[in-house]
């Protein structure tokens, strides 16, 4: 799949999260600019009001100027400036909010797209809870960062510049006093910045980890309940919450200390400023109105500088989230289909040649020199002890993982050199634990199919032995089946899964047979459905049922990652080797 624009921004600015953030707004720069201009207009009252107030005070206290006319004139100016704020604020918000919200949804869309491309082993490694936390929580932190940085920093910088400029124009002495705040604030920022960044990063990782555990726990509730392990589960999570408490507490303390130190320093400055301008007024250098004016501007300067300081934790958190999202968007563990030829037709001939496999995070080779020739339409059953490597072979055949040595040929094409998506259009996978989603039965069966005719649907339902089940349901095919299909029985779920495979009319089927025991009636129904499904298609089954094994064209016995026997049922029974032993054991 093509890299999204957001992915490109991440790849180009891997080390610099601030550059990434700015880059994300490409296409919105003009909107942001107009929003900033409107902000300046809407904010004019904040700068003009102190002057107008000073004029009114001076007109009232010093019998100079225009008296009542000055008071009225300044009042009218103030009213106009205040009222225009409502309109300009509306358009200012409209523009920047659209920009920020579109980046927010763009980030989520890019993450989802990337998740669909990442290799299956990588996804398993990352855990769904952590991924979910990145998609929801981190993107939200980036959105908060954007609005804070844009709205607050604009507010801060514009206020600061105007207050300082007016003061400089009126009194350079007071101006010099004002800018003394800069080194003080810089010092405070330097002292706290690194601590806040580290603390934020630790807290974010802890949250992600806990998120993963919580999702896992929710999925495990029935198992925990069935084994009376509720308390253990609660304890396990409580331990994680304790970690969050410690890390979050540490973060809060640093942030709060940072806030209070800066607040106290600036309040002290404000008191000094009042004393300083008061003395200047006593000496007659400035008027009483100007004392109020400078005090107001100084409050603006102080508030602006302390706002920059209070913004820092949010910025640190947001930039940490920019990094966190980048972990996914720049991950290289993707299924690479770029520039690989698509296959137009699949017959279903497989040649597995000298295949070995080792999981990336392990130094143990799981599969050794697997060699199998499978003809179009044949059914191959893999049997063997648990952990012998059967599911790993299925994952290799789907292309979720690639052989570390050897190769797999599909109709003569090396699977590593073709666009696997073109093969998977002709493939149906029926996993051991049926994966259903919380829609209707119809939606679950026709998942990913653009259109299905009534006759086709009926044929599939009959073949999957689902017709009777559907007929008994009040809403028929439109019955909602609950999360993961919880409202269906295990056997019914398996048959829905078989129907989903059937409707795709695949050329190749990969089937990890469910191990759970079913009653003989249900077992018979499933076996009939499976027979229809596999008929005339190349099928690979991890087989547990006797009937499946009996019906397979070939049986491959896997032992410790090696294929120790390969042949028909009768051949393997005749040679009285491993398969014979396994059968004896089962019986
Ligand atoms: N992601 C992984 N990382 C490392 N080792 C793994 C991973 N997945 C599986 N294994 C190991 O690979 C071996 C083969 O596993 P596999 O799931 O293929 O066995 P299986 O024959 O299908 O077992 P079962 O019949 O119980 O499903 C096991 O020893 C397992 O521990």
UniProtKB/TrEMBL annotation:
Residues 350-585 form the ABC transporter domain. CDD domains: ABC_6TM_exporters. InterPro entries: AAA+_ATPase, ABC1_TM_dom, ABC1_TM_sf, ABC_transporter-like_ATP-bd, ABC_transporter-like_CS, P-loop_NTPase, Type_1_exporter. It is a multi-pass membrane protein. It is found in: Cell membrane. GO terms for molecular function: ATP binding. The chain crosses the membrane at residues 32-59, 71-91, 149-169, 175-192, 257-282. Residues 48-317 form the ABC transmembrane type-1 domain. The keyword Nucleotide-binding applies. It holds the Pfam family ABC_membrane. Keywords: ATP-binding, Membrane, Nucleotide-binding, Transmembrane, Transmembrane helix. Gene3D superfamilies: ABC transporter type 1, transmembrane domain (1.20.1560.10), P-loop containing nucleotide triphosphate hydrolases (3.40.50.300). PANTHER family: ATP-BINDING CASSETTE SUB-FAMILY B, ATP-BINDING CASSETTE SUB-FAMILY B MEMBER 6. This is ABC transporter ATP-binding protein. It comes from Neobacillus driksii.
């Amino acid at each position: 799949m093509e890299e999204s624009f957001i992915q490109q921004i991440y790849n180009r600015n891997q080390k610099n999260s601030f550059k990434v953030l700015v880059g994300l707004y490409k296409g919105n720069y003009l909107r942001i600019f107009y929003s900033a201009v409107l902000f300046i207009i809407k904010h004019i009252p904040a700068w003009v009001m102190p002057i107008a107030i000073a004029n009114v005070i001076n007109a009232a206290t010093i019998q100079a100027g225009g008296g009542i006319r000055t008071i009225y004139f300044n009042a009218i100016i103030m009213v106009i400036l205040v009222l225009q704020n409502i309109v300009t604020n509306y358009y200012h918000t409209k523009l920047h909010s659209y920009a920020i919200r579109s980046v927010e949804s763009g980030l989520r869309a890019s993450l989802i797209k990337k998740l669909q491309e990442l290799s299956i082993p990588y996804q398993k490694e990352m855990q769904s809870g952590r991924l979910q936390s990145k998609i929801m929580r981190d993107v939200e932190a980036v959105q908060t960062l954007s609005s804070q940085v844009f709205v607050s920093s604009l507010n801060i910088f514009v206020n600061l510049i105007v207050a300082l400029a007016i003061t400089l124009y009126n009194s350079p002495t007071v101006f010099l006093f004002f800018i003394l705040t800069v080194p003080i604030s810089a010092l405070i920022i330097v002292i706290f910045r690194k601590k806040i960044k580290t603390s934020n990063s630790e807290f974010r990782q802890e949250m992600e980890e806990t998120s993963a555990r919580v999702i896992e726990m929710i999925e495990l509730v029935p198992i925990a309940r069935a084994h009376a392990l509720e308390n253990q589960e609660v304890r396990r999570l409580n331990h994680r919450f304790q970690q969050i408490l410690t890390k979050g507490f540490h973060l809060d303390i640093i942030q709060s200390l940072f806030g209070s130190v800066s607040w106290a320093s600036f309040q002290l400055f404000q008191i000094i400023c009042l004393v300083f301008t008061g003395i200047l007024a006593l000496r007659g250098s400035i008027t009483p109105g100007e004392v109020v004016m400078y005090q107001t501007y100084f409050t603006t300067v102080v508030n602006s500088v302390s706002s920059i300081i209070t913004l820092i934790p949010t910025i640190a958190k947001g930039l940490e989230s920019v990094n966190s999202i980048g972990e996914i968007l720049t991950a290289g563990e993707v299924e690479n289909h770029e520039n690989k030829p698509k296959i137009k037709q699949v017959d279903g001939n497989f040649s597995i040649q000298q295949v070995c496999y080792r999981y990336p995070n392990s130094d143990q080779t799981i599969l050794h020199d697997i060699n199998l020739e499978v003809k179009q339409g044949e059914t191959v059953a893999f049997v063997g002890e648990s952990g012998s490597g059967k599911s790993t072979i299925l994952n290799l055949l789907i292309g979720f993982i690639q052989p570390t040595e050897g190769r797999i040929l599909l109709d003569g094409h090396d699977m590593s050199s073709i666009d696997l998506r073109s093969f998977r259009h002709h493939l149906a996978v029926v996993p051991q634990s049926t994966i259903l989603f919380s829609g209707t039965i119809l939606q679950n069966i026709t998942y990913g199919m653009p259109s299905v005719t009534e006759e086709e649907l009926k044929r599939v339902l009959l073949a999957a032995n689902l017709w009777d089940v559907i007929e008994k349901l009040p809403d028929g095919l439109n019955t909602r089946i609950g999360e993961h299909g919880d409202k269906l029985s295990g056997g019914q779920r398996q048959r829905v899964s078989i129907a989903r495979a059937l409707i795709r009319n695949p050329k190749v089927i990969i089937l990890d047979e469910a191990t759970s025991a079913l009653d003989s009636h249900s077992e018979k129904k499933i076996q009939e459905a499976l027979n229809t499904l596999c008929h005339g298609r190349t099928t690979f089954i991890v087989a547990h049922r006797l009937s499946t094994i009996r019906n397979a064209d070939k049986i491959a016995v896997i032992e410790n990652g090696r294929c120790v026997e390969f042949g028909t049922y009768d051949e393997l029974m005749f040679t009285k080797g491993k398969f014979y032993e396994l059968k004896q054991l089962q019986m």
